[in-house]
Amino acid sequence: MSRWVHRTLTKLVRSKRTSVRLAQRAQIVLLADLGKQTIAIAAELGIGRLQVARWRERYAIDRLAGIERDLPRGAPPVKVDVAKLVELTTQSTPQAATQWSTRTMAQELGVSAASVSRHWRANGLKPHLVRGFKVSRDPKFIDKLEDIVGLYMSPPEHALVLCCDEKSQVQALDRTQPGLPLKKGRAQTMTHDYKRNGTTTLFAAMSTLDGTVISTCQQRHTHVEWLKFLKKIDRETPKDKALHLIADNYATHKHPVVQEWLAKHPRITMHFTPTSASWLNMVERFFRDITTEQLRRGVFTSVPELIDTIDAYIAHHNKNPKPFIWTKSARDILQKVIRANKRLSSKQNATLH
Questions:
Q1: Which residue has the higher pLDDT, 71 or 60?
Q2: What percent of the chain stands above pLDDT 90?
Q3: Where do the structural domains in the chain lie, given as residue ranges?
Q4: Is 47 left (phi over 0), alpha (psi -120 to 50) or beta?
Q5: CB-side exposure of 302: number of CA atoms within 13 Å?
């Protein structure tokens, strides 16, 4: 070994700027130059003899350049065919399953599950999720859509717009055993089985102006209870305001007795959502909130306890109400529905042929 090479290797070993790996390789070469055997060098440095032999060989072939370059680690990464991944995810299903998982797709493409998950996220694909939908076939869909969205985005002056509906069959469920509370490292527990203690129906009318809710709980949800709720709305709203009530096409909402009462109260105007388009009624968002925040994990030993909980939730909501803001225009919604209808028609035609 020349003096220059020896001096260079010694600097690599002693320098604080040298990486630990490179300093160790330089030390291996220096010890070998002293005539020490591979086993002795491995024992002195506390490393494996195969590692010592590998770097001695690299130095013998490429000199300093041989120990300055890192060895390739493991097998070369497998490149994911993203186009094929997306095509399989969106246009096929695995054998004996209804949707792809990261593991089944990884096995199909011969890549890692982490790679599949990464590319799914990058392409906005979520095969584990499915969302319910139904395109309305109401012949007056456009007229009803424009009417209701118009009330949301340009409400009439000197009037209140209220989104009304009933949440039927709200169950008072009691668990068969007490659950364990949430703690560090463990989720809250709840038994899978339960005891039914009766049901109630929540009637709610949410103001689009400020988000306040008028509500009542009834044992049933016939036209009799609906009419009682309309009378409650009439009593609890300013008399000098016209009322525009948005509701779905449930038969009790159009019962002759209800129609007769509405005819005697001209300040109330009913607006019905299109068939299979309850998503147009913003009170459904409130029902979702009360379900997830209060009812789904609640424990109720009786119907009165359930009603008290619902009333307390709505009272708390009304202390600091926040309205839901409708942002989609009727035109944007209609274009989306038209696209959905076209896709459904092409799908049905492909199935028939």
A1: 60
A2: 61
A3: 3-68, 82-122, 141-182+194-328
A4: beta
A5: 3
- Rounded-to-integer distance, Cα 264 and Cα 231, Å: 12
Largest CA distance in the chain: 112
Is the pLDDT confidence value at 268 over 70? yes
DSSP calls for 296-336: TT---SSHHHHHHHHHHHHHHHHHS--PPPP---HHHHHHH
- The class (CATH top level) of 141-182+194-328 is alpha beta
The pairing of strands 194-207 and 268-272 is unpaired
How many C-beta neighbours within 10 Å does residue 333 have?
Answer: 18
pLDDT score of 50: 86
Global confidence as pTM = 0.70
pLDDT of residue 72: 54
Contacts of 233 by beta carbon, 8 Å cutoff, 6+ apart: 162, 164, 205, 214, 243, 245, 268
pLDDT at 83: 92
Nearest to 238 by CA among 158, 126, 166: 158
